[in-house]
Write a structure and sequence with these properties.
7 strands, 4-stranded parallel beta sheet, 359 residues, alpha/beta, 3-stranded parallel beta sheet, single chain
């Protein structure tokens, strides 16, 4: 494919000249042509599933995405399956080969437009969010579908748009009851042995308060509550949710009387990427001065990984207690996403105006 792909329409520029506009338009054409050719060459069915992930630049994450695409092809034989990244930064850095060999990914609008091109025109398009919570990134997924359905760029056949069936698969923890409880059940089946030996601390991403779309951060608290019905050694924190940083997890552990022992850490993200490798399992402990940490104004200890944080606090927390697996690498958890896809396919066509916002 073409190298150095970038998401179109979400990049911001401090200044735009006529040359900038021309270059941007040329890039758009190049990217769209590349995706068009991919879809045309790989089209086998009349229906398609588009998996939408935030993205990553790690080989382990790419392997997880690739295996997920293959699992979807096996589970949905009547559908073609493609993967897209929604993050411009991930798309650009992946193309530049930040951590591994360069690889090209494309943003959802390019795929949706390719699905509607002459010679393709899928009769049904299912967009499956690979987000964990229905937060900020899920909102972007909804807006991609709305823009496509409303022919925002004016380049899709209106007659086709009036007939194509659109479906939307929701994030992993969309429902506060059924999804949260099912994921807790599956995680406990996977890690009850570790929970019997010490703390199992799941690290989610979370949204800052100003970006907490649909107040989705509550899903982390709900998941911890559901997990603690199995064992009081389960905890769920985040890297970006106020009052639920690793410092807050530590405070809850102390309140539960857990002041020593093993601490297993596990990413609560679709893939084990930059956050998992660095924020969770990295060796960064610049905040530690030999005797104490210095929290920032929000109460978080910056420049220190979860591993080093708990290690300095006297827990057994090292490379041997890092469970470096993304949720898509766990078939029983991945199945929850796939069940959402089945529900979308078996349900009504998407009311894209109201979308599938969580209640």
């Amino acid at each position: 494919m073409i190298a150095a792909m970038a998401i179109f329409g979400t990049l911001s520029f401090t200044a735009c000249s006529d040359d900038d506009d021309e270059k941007s338009n040329n890039n758009y054409v190049v990217y769209q042509n590349a995706v068009n050719q991919t879809v045309k060459s790989q089209k086998k069915n009349s229906k398609v599933i588009l998996l939408v992930a935030f993205g990553s630049t790690w080989q382990q994450a790419y392997d997880a995405f690739d295996s997920t695409v293959e699992a979807y092809k096996q589970a949905f034989p009547g559908y073609d399956v493609f993967l897209s990244f929604s993050s411009a930064i991930c798309i650009n850095r992946a193309a530049a080969g930040e951590n591994v060999r360069p690889r090209n990914f494309y943003a959802p609008p390019f795929w949706l437009a390719a699905f509607a091109q002459d010679g393709v025109k899928y009769s049904e398009i299912v967009v499956q969010s690979l987000q964990v919570i229905p937060g900020e990134e899920y909102t972007r997924v909804i807006n991609y579908i709305k823009d496509f359905a409303n022919n925002a760029n004016g380049d899709i056949d209106d007659n086709y748009l009036s007939k194509v069936v659109l479906k939307l698969g929701v994030p992993l923890l969309q429902d506060a009851e059924s999804d949260v409880n099912e994921v807790a059940k599956q995680l406990n089946q996977l890690y009850n042995k570790q929970a019997s030996e010490g703390v199992v601390a799941f690290m989610g991403h979370g949204n800052p308060d100003s970006y907490d779309t649909y107040k989705a951060n509550v899903r982390y608290t709900q998941l911890e509550d559901a997990l603690q019905k199995y064992s009081k050694n389960y905890f769920v924190g985040t890297v970006d949710m106020m009052d639920n940083f690793k410092t807050n997890v530590y405070a809850r552990m102390l309140s539960a009387g857990i002041n020593s022992g093993k601490v297993y850490c596990h990413p609560l993200m679709s893939i084990d990427g930059d956050h998992g490798h660095n924020d969770m399992a990295g060796d960064d402990d610049d905040n530690w001065n030999g005797t104490k940490f210095t929290p920032n104004d929000e109460g978080e200890v910056e420049d220190t990984s979860w591993k080093m944080y708990f290690q300095h606090l006297g827990y057994t927390c090292d490379n041997s207690t890092m469970i470096e697996k993304g949720l898509l690498e766990l078939p029983s958890i991945r199945q929850v996403w796939m069940n959402h896809t089945k529900d979308a396919i078996n349900g009504e066509a998407l009311d894209y105006y109201h979308s599938k916002n969580p209640e």
